[in-house]
Design a protein that fits this description.
By secondary structure, the chain is an alpha+beta fold. The chain contains seven helices and eight strands.
Length: about 450
C-alpha cells in the first residue's frame, strides 16, 4: 500500500504541502539555499530600492543637476577686468627710470554687462520648471521601479512555492518507488510498476532541478532591481499573497500622476523659453570705467574714462532661437498629450486586468483546487486498495500538480495585477512604505 486517504495529496492544508506520502517526511536534500536564506518582506525590498537602486540614484542625480541649473540661470554676468599696454615705442626707447615711469600707456578697465528685458528672471523660471520636472521624474522612477520590484518579488514567491510543489511530488514519487521495490521483492508488484515509478521519479527530479534554477534566477533578478550584488541575493519572500478583493476603479486625477506632472512642467519650461528667446531682442548694455597711466611731462600721468556699448542687431535678430523655442513648445504639448493618453490607458488596462485576475484566482481557489484534490484523493485511495492501475495514479498526481501550479500562477497574476493597478493610479510624492524621497547622498529617510 502506497498511500491512504488521511495522508493523500488533498490532506494538505495549503499550497505549501500539496503532496504527502506514507511514512515520516524526509527533509529534501535538494532544497536550495536553506541555510543561507535571507528572509525578505516586500516592504523591505521597496526600501532597498529607494536606498540602493541605480535607477533611483540616477534620478536623484538628474534632480541635483537640475537644481544646479537653477543656480546657474539666476547668476548675473560677472564684471570683466582688462589691462592693456599701448604706445610702446621701441625705436626711441621706453625712457629712463623705474618701470612705472616708463613711457608706456597702461589702461586698467572694468566692464559690466547689464541685462535687460527680464532675461535673468526668465532663465530662472525656465530652469525652475526644469527642476520641478526632474523632481516629478524622481517620483516617476520610484513608481515604475516599485512596480518592477513588486513583480520580481512575486516572481520569487511563485518560484519558491513552485519549488515546494516540485519537491513534494519528487519526495512522494521517491517513497512510492521504495515501497514498490519492497513489494516487487516480495512478489506483490510487477517490474512494470517499478519501471513506471522510476520514470516518474526521473521526471519529478528534472522538474525539481528546473524549479531550483527558476528560484535562483528570481533571486538574482530581484537583487539587481534593488541594487544588491547577486552573491547577496539568497532571498526568501516572506509576505503572504495579497487578499483577493474586487471593485477596483480606473477613476482618478490623471494629471496628478508623476509622469503627467513632469510633462506639464516641461511644457511650462518651453513657454518660459519662448519668452526668453524673444527677450534677446532687448538690447543689453555694457558700461565700463577705466584708469589710464601714461607718463607725459606736459599732460600728467593719470587719466580716467567711462564708456558703454550696446549690440547692433543688423545680421542676427534671433529668428532661429525664437523659432526653435516655438517648436520645442509644440513638441512639449504633444508629449503632454501623449503622456496623458498613456496614463489613462494604463489605468483602464490595469483595472480590466485586475478584475479578470480576481475572477480567475477565485475560481481556482474556491472550485478547481478543491475538486482536483478530491479527485486525486480518490485515485490514491483506489490504488491503495488495488482497484486502480499505476498509470492512472501517476496521471492523477501529474494532474494535481498542474492544477496546483495553475492556482499558484493565478495568485501571482492577481498580485502583479494589483501592483500594476496601484502604480497606474499612483499620484503621491512619497516613497513606498512611508519612505520620503530625498535627493542628497543620504538616500531615504523614514517618517
Amino acid at each position: 500500500m502506497l498511500c491512504v486517504p488521511a495522508c493523500g495529496p488533498f490532506a494538505a492544508a495549503g499550497p505549501a504541502s500539496p503532496f504527502v506520502a506514507v511514512g515520516a517526511a524526509e527533509p529534501d536534500a535538494a532544497a536550495p539555499f536553506a541555510d543561507a536564506a535571507r528572509p525578505l518582506a516586500l516592504a523591505e525590498a521597496e526600501r532597498l530600492l529607494v536606498q540602493s537602486s541605480p535607477q533611483m540614484q540616477a534620478a536623484r542625480l538628474a534632480l541635483e543637476a537640475a537644481r544646479a541649473d537653477v543656480v546657474t540661470a539666476l547668476e548675473a554676468p560677472n564684471p570683466q577686468f582688462s589691462w592693456n599696454s599701448t604706445m610702446m615705442n621701441f625705436h626711441d626707447g621706453l625712457g629712463a627710470g623705474a618701470p612705472w615711469d616708463k613711457r608706456v600707456d597702461s589702461v586698467f578697465r572694468i566692464d559690466q554687462q547689464i541685462e535687460r528685458g527680464g532675461k535673468r528672471e526668465l532663465r530662472g523660471k525656465a530652469a525652475m520648471k526644469g527642476e520641478a520636472a526632474a523632481r516629478a521624474d524622481v517620483e516617476e522612477a520610484l513608481r515604475t521601479s516599485t512596480l518592477a520590484v513588486d513583480n520580481a518579488y512575486y516572481d520569487l514567491k511563485t518560484a519558491q512555492e513552485a519549488l515546494q510543489i516540485a519537491s513534494d511530488l519528487a519526495s512522494l514519487q521517491r517513497q512510492s518507488l521504495e515501497v514498490a521495490r519492497l513489494r516487487f521483492g516480495a512478489g506483490a508488484a510487477s517490474d512494470v510498476d517499478v519501471a513506471g515509478l522510476q520514470v516518474e521519479l526521473a521526471r519529478a527530479e528534472a522538474d525539481l532541478a528546473d524549479a531550483t534554477t527558476a528560484k535562483r534566477a528570481a533571486q538574482i533578478a530581484l537583487a539587481q532591481l534593488v541594487g544588491l550584488p547577486s552573491d547577496r541575493a539568497r532571498f526568501e519572500a516572506t509576505d503572504d499573497w495579497p487578499a483577493v478583493t474586487a471593485g477596483y476603479s480606473a477613476e482618478g486625477a490623471v494629471n496628478q500622476r508623476p509622469d503627467v506632472r513632469a510633462a506639464h512642467e516641461r511644457l511650462d519650461r518651453a513657454e518660459a523659453s519662448i519668452a526668453l528667446a524673444r527677450a534677446q531682442l532687448t538690447h543689453d548694455v555694457t558700461v565700463g570705467a577705466q584708469y589710464e597711466r601714461f607718463p607725459q611731462p606736459d599732460v600728467g600721468p593719470n587719466t580716467w574714462g567711462v564708456g558703454f556699448s550696446i549690440p547692433i542687431f543688423l545680421r542676427n535678430r534671433f529668428e532661429g532661437e525664437i523659432a526653435r523655442a516655438g517648436t520645442d513648445r509644440r513638441l512639449a504639448e504633444q508629449q503632454l498629450r501623449q503622456t496623458q493618453l498613456a496614463a489613462q490607458a494604463d489605468r483602464e488596462l490595469a483595472t480590466a486586468q485586475l478584475e479578470g485576475a480576481v475572477q480567475r484566482v477565485r475560481r481556482f481557489q474556491e472550485e478547481v483546487v478543491t475538486q482536483a484534490r478530491k479527485a486525486a484523493d480518490a485515485e490514491e485511495y483506489a490504488y491503495s486498495r488495488g482497484s486502480l492501475a499505476l498509470t492512472d495514479l501517476l496521471d492523477a498526481r501529474r494532474s494535481l500538480q498542474a492544477v496546483l501550479l495553475d492556482t499558484l500562477n493565478a495568485r501571482a497574476t492577481y498580485a502583479k495585477a494589483l501592483a500594476a493597478w496601484k502604480a497606474a493610479t499612483s499620484v503621491g510624492a512619497a516613497g513606498p512604505a512611508g519612505l520620503a524621497i530625498t535627493t542628497g547622498t543620504g538616500g531615504a529617510a523614514t517618517h
